[in-house]
Model the fold of this input.
Amino acid sequence: MSAAVVLVRVDREAGAHTGHPRHLHPALDLKYIQARLEADTGAPVPLLDGWLAPFRVAGMAQRCLALAPRVAVIRAVTWCLEESVRLAAALRAAGVVTIAVGQQVQHIVRSPFPGWDEAFDLAVAGEPEEAVPRLVARLSAGEPLERLRAESRARLAEGTTALVTEPDALARPGFSPAELADYAFPFPLRGRPVARWGYVLTSWGCPRPCRHCTAIVRKSVGQRLRERDVAAVVDEVLALQAAGAEAIAFEDDSLFVHRSRFLALAGELVRRGARLPWMANARPDELDPERVAAAREAGAVLLKVGVDSGSPRLIERLGKTDDGEGWLAATERGFALLETHGVGSVALFMVGMPDETPADAEATLALARRIRPDYLQMQIYRPYPDVPLWTELPEAARTRGAEYHYLAPASNCSRIPLAELPRLQRRLYRRFYLRPGFMARHLVRSWRHYLSARTLARAPATLAWLIGRG
Done:
């Protein structure tokens, strides 16, 4: 089998990877590119996802070259830059045109990485869903690669960022039954277990002015909100349901950010009988009574809520809001509303943020225990070059190269000792998850999930990670 174009998502090589539990979500930008190229050419476009099995650069290079592609679109993020460069170099040496997409491109613009320029012919910074199919079409039409290369490098030097401008004109991604199972949310939901998940973006962009946010955790990169037609979104939900999806993950940076539009979407899901449970991202200050009630009626079973910190001072420092105390109050009200309406929650926090102290970290844990979420996620913060507060940090605190934000840190912008951050993360996890009260509540709500052999097989590794020595 051969293919004109192959799409690849790179991961960190297995031997250097974190043991932190991961949610394996699909690379939706590559899925959109795949759908457009297949619609334009009528030929299959393979997507090789390095997240789905232990990653090896040599093995992925062999898989790609076996397809004899002319072009390889390679998606990577900061924590696997080295692997991305090695893979692209191997493919380019074999005569394949290499195109870089993903957060790696924004990183390289601000912080060079050895070998990157030699590995990649072309690069698209920002959102590649519209830009890459156009670039591939120009290559297929015979435009000289050198001309495209010069244009690509000029755009990077100028800081030009590609953005999705016509979201309703994008070709709809397709998912096979195997993909629906591959990308299942890894933790139990309230109610019946879900094994097959569909993923949907309803908008691109986030208008929030957060100063610490990086494209490594974003689903899009622009600030201006670009929304799909609500009816088209529900069409896609129903198509995924017909394909076998048992639940939907809405992948917007925040599904709730535009209040009236969210209420319209929730109403359309109800009106058209979309029966699938769903999860989404939200902020605490978006969880008002009307939106939470509408979400529950429309099928919401889990919200991932970006709380970030229990310290009002840090919340203001990060630009989440000018009123840190109000943020904490909104957090407590929002999680109480979710509990009242029976909607599960994941509270998303970070440690190691700029100027954070051990007392701030303890305030975060205290807030997490007050709001009683279904799950707590605690990341070690890394200030990557694309974050707005990057220029305010001392040089020693800036993350460079391919430093991975879950591994033992090589840089630190907090007032917590560097070596203490991973140990603090694990202590916070243990003090939250290993409480008898949490365990009892969790089993009452989610016991059905543990009847699955797949879940039982994964549980020991997760538990070992939680109780491992910090």
